[in-house]
């Protein structure tokens, strides 16, 4: 079965997380991704744990299905090889600090003179222009500058980083989305284009109603823990042996919850008769719900609430979600055979396509594994000795 991006060739100048996750998504869909790595050490994440037989699990997950070539970007002959590769490439993706690729002569303006159909994506902390564009950034900086840290955590504690690298991951997703849009545009017009993705922009775009609460009502959202800013009950609640989530976002669901709790009159209480009123009296409502929950274990409460048609769940730990039957059925953990590490379980792809399902054919490459295979083709054309 053919994959949707089977004829697409990607030159991958990325490292660490945002860029490699983007190009991994393209490789999952069948693109030929050629990862250009620093000789001797390669991508920084080759040195990140956890390790299996001295191979990085971090790198293995992010770089599955790619080819690796070692090229020193300070070597003019390496640049010449890259420019030959560009002639046949469809996509270039990089995540250096703005200006680095221009100094190397590998920026969009230079490469589109070689191949006017090239789609070129740059991922950086603050974008390619703007007063902060030259600032260095990692995910924590993006979460802080993008506004997410200010609304994450509890009011009585300092701002908190979200538990996953959302700055990197959201930028990767937007970059992959941008590449798809640009390739579709190219199919219609024949022309490539440039894509500028900033981690801070990506985080900011995820703030949804928090931004609108400020722009419309001039309310500055604050840290409120796990509860929802405009709906209640929508929080984490204590049962008799642990914590559960209950998510009620409208009056109909609240009426159902009242019936489940055996207290249909609760919805007539003026404090809880509307979503806005419930949010204003959230602490009182939470006390009533948690008092009711003391008669149930987490498992019993979740089953009872779900059966009544109200969204509820336990709070799974990483080991629990990894071992969960739903995770297995959805193929969100897959086992790969790495030539050095051996069998390793890595995250699957969440995009489930009916006609062209994701097929992850190859593990992550060894450093420089495909250097000779790829470069030999171009040495004959250019008489380059590298």
Automatic annotation (TrEMBL):
Molecular function in Gene Ontology: transferase activity
Matching Gene3D superfamilies: Crotonobetainyl-coa:carnitine coa-transferase, domain 1 (3.40.50.10540), formyl-coa transferase, domain 3 (3.30.1540.10)
InterPro entries in UniProt: CoA-transferase_III_domain, CoA-Trfase_fam_III, CoA-Trfase_III_dom3_sf, CoA-Trfase_III_dom_1_sf
Chain segments annotated as coiled-coil in the UniProt record: none
Domain of life assignment: Bacteria
Signal sequence annotation: none
Sorted UniProt keywords: Transferase
Pfam families listed in its UniProt record: CoA_transf_3
Protein name: CoA transferase
């Amino acid at each position: 079965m053919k994959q949707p991006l089977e004829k697409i060739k990607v030159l991958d100048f990325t490292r660490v997380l945002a860029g490699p996750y983007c190009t991994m998504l393209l490789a999952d869909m069948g693109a030929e991704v050629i990862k250009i790595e620093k000789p001797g050490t390669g991508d920084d994440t080759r040195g990140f744990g956890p390790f299996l037989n001295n191979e990085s699990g971090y790198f293995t997950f992010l770089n599955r299905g790619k080819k690796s070539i070692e090229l020193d970007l300070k070597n003019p002959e390496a640049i010449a090889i890259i420019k030959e590769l560009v002639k046949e490439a469809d996509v270039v993706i990089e995540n250096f600090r703005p200006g680095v690729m221009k100094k190397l002569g590998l920026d969009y303006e230079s490469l589109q003179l070689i191949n006017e159909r090239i789609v070129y994506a740059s991922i950086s902390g603050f974008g390619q222009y703007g007063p902060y564009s030259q600032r260095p950034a990692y995910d924590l900086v993006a979460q802080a500058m993008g506004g997410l840290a200010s609304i994450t955590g509890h009011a009585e504690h300092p701002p908190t980083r979200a538990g996953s690298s959302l700055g990197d991951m959201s930028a990767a997703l937007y970059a992959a989305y941008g590449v798809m849009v640009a390739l579709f545009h190219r199919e219609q017009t024949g022309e490539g284009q440039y894509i500028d993705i900033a981690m801070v922009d990506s985080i900011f775009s995820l703030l949804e109603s928090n931004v609108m609460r400020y722009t419309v009502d001039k309310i500055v959202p604050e840290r409120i823990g796990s509860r929802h800013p405009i709906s209640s009950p929508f929080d984490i609640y204590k049962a008799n042996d642990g914590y559960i989530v209950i998510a009620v976002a409208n009056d109909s669901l609240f009426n159902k919850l009242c019936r489940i709790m055996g207290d249909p009159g609760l919805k007539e209480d003026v404090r809880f008769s509307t979503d806005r009123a419930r949010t204003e009296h959230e602490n009182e409502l939470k006390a009533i719900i948690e008092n009711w929950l003391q008669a149930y274990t987490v498992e019993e409460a979740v089953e009872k609430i779900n059966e009544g048609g109200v969204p509820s769940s336990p709070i799974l730990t990483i080991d629990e979600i990894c071992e969960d039957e739903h995770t297995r059925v959805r193929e969100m953990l897959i086992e790969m055979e790495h030539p050095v590490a051996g069998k390793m379980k890595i995250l699957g792809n969440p995009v489930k396509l009916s006609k062209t399902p994701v097929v992850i054919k190859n593990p992550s490459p060894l450093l420089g594994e495909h250097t000779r295979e790829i470069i030999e083709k171009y040495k004959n054309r250019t008489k380059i000795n590298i």
